Amino acid sequence: MAHLTKTAYLAYTQCRKAFWMAAYRPHLAAPPDPATQRRLRAGQEVDVRARGQFPDGRTIPYRPHPEEMASLTAQAIAEGATTLFQATFHTADLLVKVDILTRTADGWHLIEVKSSTRYKPEEHLPDVAFQWYVLQQAGLPLAQASLMHLNGDCRHPDFSNLYALTDITAEVQVYLPQVAADVIVMRETMGQTETPVVGIGRHCRQPYACAYYAHCWQGVAGATIYDVPYLKRPTEQQLDTDGIRYVADIPPDFALGDKRAAAFVTQLRQQQTAVDADAIRRELAALTYPLYFFDFETIDYAIPTFTGCKPYQQAPFQYSCHVLHADGTLTHHVYLHTTPDDPRRPLIHSLLEHIGETGSIIVYHAPFEKGRLRELADAFPEHATRLLDMVDRLWDQLDIFKKHYRDYRFGGSNSLKSVLPVVAPALSYQSLAVQNGQQAQVVWEQMVGEGDTAVKEQLAAQLRAYCHLDTLAMVEIHRTLVNL
Predict the structure, then answer these.
(1) Is residue 254 domain-shared with residue 356, that is, in the same domain?
(2) What is the pLDDT of residues 314-343, one digit of tens each?
(3) Domain with 332 in it: what CATH number?
(4) Number of folded domains in the chain?
(5) Would 150 disulfide with which of 126, 301, 311, 343, CB 3.0-4.6 Å?
(6) Whole-model pTM?
């Protein structure tokens, strides 16, 4: 029987079927995409750097057979080691590697390192509790369990407070009976020769996107009950028990229990479109020419890289700006930082050249651009007046689709990529190499580190094309709205 590891336990807590398939059908798992790989690399960097908090720590060397690492761990403890990294424990079929294990007067302190900026019980508690359970089974006296995570108050270049420690000992001890019960079921599941019968649902994407999502969802087409917003869990379970998967199959007299969920279902079932042209016309009348259709692309480093930044702060490295004048003339401006140094100051200088001191600045989901402009104003106070003036001139195109324009073809989403195919179908992201902001981050990191000039320019062109379409999409949506 395969080892029951922490990774296996976390898979089990999300989906028993995924846990089984990881052992017996691993070839059906989708490989992690580049954005996921980027997050994993960031987590590894945070983990390795955390060891610097314990200068006397001792790393258990890697061995292909974990039983050997367990023996090396036992040896290190017997020799009086006070802090261990990757301490490995193996008992029966249970196996864990602990990020940091440090000795105290009352017993050992188990420390799990996470790259998040806070403790998330739904994700982190099962992780740490399983480790505690295995160490307890191995006979190690434990005194405390903590989560070491990034500190949102840290600012580059001062890393003296990069990490924060959250004591979760009490929560772990309460959770231990659940682990014990789960281990029994895990062993039973691992003994099965047939794939466990587990239906699809929201758990396929929460708290993590499952590697078997594409396999389990193949053949599923159309809006499902798991796409219905505000649908309460008991109601969803009742529909699932009744064998209802698609929104179109929900009985008209079925009580959904939430007006917003019911409205969504009615809109899809009746293929409703609701456009308040008069309200849209009033909203558009508030705009002042020239109109600047604007969008940032940003990079977020777990461990901040640029002066004054905190963990995961979004630093803009690119923008696109289409300018629509009152006479219908359309011009385009773009800035893309192509080197790995801090992109913010040169981006600001370009921004101040391209966006004048009058005219509405149209964005999609204004809180994002508003936040970035305010951060730039804080970091570069000599430009704060102009940048904060831009904040005051922002106009959110998304509000139109929240309040005055609804279409069942949006699929319950108001995102730009959901609205565009319906409102301006001539434009599409499908042919682009970069199709979302996470991909843009990956490509930007590749580009700034690329030594081959031709490859570097190819990656830069992909970024420019993506950001260009973001703002051109807003232009075409605006033209459609004006013509209503």
Answers:
(1) yes
(2) 999 999 999 999 999 999 999 999 999 999
(3) 3.30.420
(4) 2
(5) 311
(6) 0.93
